[in-house]
Specification:
Largest sheet: 6 strands, mixed
Helix content: 25-40%
Number of domains: 1
Order of helices and strands: EEHEEHEEEEHEHHEHEHHEEEHHH
Number of helices: 11
CATH superfamily: Ribokinase
Radius of gyration: 18 Å
CATH class: Alpha Beta
CATH topology: UDP-N-acetylmuramoyl-L-alanine:D-glutamate ligase
Structural class: alpha/beta
CATH architecture: 3-Layer(aba) Sandwich
């Protein structure tokens, strides 16, 4: 559940120095849904999009990816959000145009509670909560429905400074994490939200909130899988990375897909780290997301994690 966004990703300059933009799709939870579907999971998406060309494009995308769109609401007169990925040396920065988006209009009354109760895992993120007060209320209500129906709740802290002040984000995001069985947090976001820098201290903090599994995403250094009993550092494979946009979302989606398939958490996490690394070998958030066969082939060829 969350906000999809049309993506325009800046490519490296051509021979004449001009920069072009690759049109694509983004939005953290949409990326995660597609990543899970490409690993073989059965996925549905909860959101609102405009009745504009962007909304049409997303519906076509999700249907092509096998993501159920029966729970997508259309909002006449409200836009589908847009963002730009700007290259800055070896890194990148984002420009967001999401104020008043269709997704931000989402409210608890829009929730497809029967569809949620019929799932096995409900997934949302800090961005799902940040886009509006009504959207945050809807996420919390969805979590209540999921927990009452016996579902596992998965939650990515995904903090965006531009969307809300840190004190409000901290309280809301950590309430979301406390309702989850699986929590994903990037090291950068966790430092901002907790004030902690040591990975073990961060993992202690999130485990104290109540989730059974915490995955601390460390970018090019891989991830740490933490359970109450053990912590396992998982190194990523070496790949020819060109664009890390959405890699953390791919990790979350691939991990949850493998949990649904019956993998133990460590095996699921090792698979997910490889999937996330492979997703950085192309431009844009969605186009380079690997499918299960791609990940299996990479692991077979020795691109395993340590």
């Amino acid at each position: 559940m969350g906000e999809p966004m049309l993506e325009y990703s800046q490519l490296p300059p051509g021979p004449d120095g001009r920069r072009l933009y690759l049109e694509g799709f983004g939005g953290d939870t949409s990326n995660t849904a597609i990543a899970a579907a490409r690993q073989g999971a059965k996925v549905g998406y909860i959101t609102a999009v405009g009745t504009d060309a962007g909304g049409d494009a997303f519906l076509q995308l999700w249907q092509g990816e096998g993501v159920d769109t029966a729970t997508v609401v259309r909002r006449p007169g409200l836009p589908t959000a847009v963002y730009f990925v700007m290259r800055r040396g070896a890194g990148h920065e984002f420009l967001f145009y999401r104020a008043g988006s269709a997704a931000s209009s989402y409210r608890p009354a829009d929730l497809p509670e029967a569809a949620i109760a019929g799932a096995r895992i409900f997934y949302a993120s800090g961005i799902s909560q940040a886009i509006s007060t009504s959207a945050a209320d809807a996420v919390f209500r969805a979590m209540e429905v999921a927990r009452a129906a016996g579902l596992a709740v998965a939650f990515d802290t995904n903090y965006r400074r531009s969307l809300w002040p840190v004190h409000r984000a901290r309280a809301t995001i950590h309430a979301g994490a406390a309702a989850a069985s699986y929590v994903f947090a990037s090291e950068e976001d966790a430092e901002a939200l907790t004030g902690l820098r040591d990975p073990d201290a961060i993992l202690d903090f999130y485990h104290a909130l109540g989730p059974r599994i915490v995955i601390l995403k460390q970018g090019e250094d891989g991830a740490i899988l933490a359970t109450p009993e053990t912590r396992i550092r998982i190194r990523p494979p070496k790949v020819a990375s060109v664009d890390s946009t959405g890699a953390g979302d791919v990790l979350s989606g691939a991990f949850l897909a493998r949990i649904l398939a019956g993998d133990e958490p460590e095996l699921a996490a090792r698979y997910a780290v490889v999937a996330a690394a492979l997703s950085t070998t192309g431009y844009g958030a969605v186009a380079p997301i690997p499918r299960e066969a791609d990940v299996r082939q990479a692991m077979k060829l020795g691109f395993s994690t340590g």
